[in-house]
Amino acid sequence: MSDSPEWEAKFKSFLKKAQDDFKRAATDVKAEAERLMKEVQDPKTQEKMKSGVHEAGVWAKKTAEQLASLVEVGVKQAEGTLNEMKKQFTHPIEPPADPARTDVAEPTPAPTPKNAAPPTMEPPAPPAPKPPAKKTVGRGTGPKKSAPAKPAAKKSMGKKKRSDA
Question: Are 152 and 120 within 8 A, CB to CB?
């Protein structure tokens, strides 16, 4: 570094500006903190916060009760539908006792609910399996040529042994 008085003056000027900037920032932060503390300690603001929290709690409770009633209605409807379906499928159609009698009316099929799914068809038969393909990956076109086997290098485990001679 040079010891010129001009350089020292510029450096001192820079430090003075930085000091002023820090002081201004510190006073701004202090003023904002004091304003926030006054706002938090203000009884009107505290009352607003309490009422807001209370309203949110009331809303949450009301919403939870509505949700519970909707779920209950849904469960009851599902139970009713399941019981109806169970009744339809548990009452078997009984054949007539005497096949020679013709005065017995034919059993009517059970009514289907409005929302019942259409009857399912059997899936088509799967296609005939293909014969296994000949594997070509990893196979060469000719006989393998192997290199002569080399003995493995001896490796030591742990610390290298020193030979002090």
Answer: no
Report pLDDT digits (tens) over 90-107: 765 565 566 565 555 555
- Domain spans of the chain, in order of start: 1-41, 51-91
Give pTM, 2 decimals: 0.32
